[in-house]
TrEMBL record:
Gene3D superfamilies: 2.40.128.520. Residues 29-151 form the DUF2147 domain. InterPro entries: DUF2147. It comes from Acinetobacter corruptisaponis. This is DUF2147 domain-containing protein.
Amino acid sequence: MSHQLLKKCVLGLIGCFISIVSYAASIEGYWRSIDDRTGEQLTIIEIRKASDNTYRGKIVHIFPSAQGVVVTHCMNCPAPYTNKPRMGLEVLTGLVEDPKRPNNYIEGHILESKTGKTYKGKARLSPDGKRLFMRGYVGISALGRTVVWIRTDSATP
């Protein structure tokens, strides 16, 4: 009887360990985007999983610049985003979970609403789930840049 109990405990511990190791946190929620060059807070972006199993992100809050200016419209953005309000603008589309690597996301598209530039995108969630490393690139990933988004609890600062 003692042998069976020990066997059950070992199997239970193995199951717990496997579930912890294979756990992949979700990127759904609110993320504060930071300018990697200036350290300035830019926006809060809400990421949600769409019905087609892709992740999409829209701007839910815009921080004023250091000079107190808020860019309200996407002036240099390509169609269909040209002159659209930045608030509510979908800036992240098509991101999917990488089936080969937990906490990694691929095949996305990123719109930098302040400048109007568009990039292919991928992301990696930190092990603690508090930072999202967004990589935007044109052509190949090696020619891009990575910015860090920080998880926040709400759409308002």
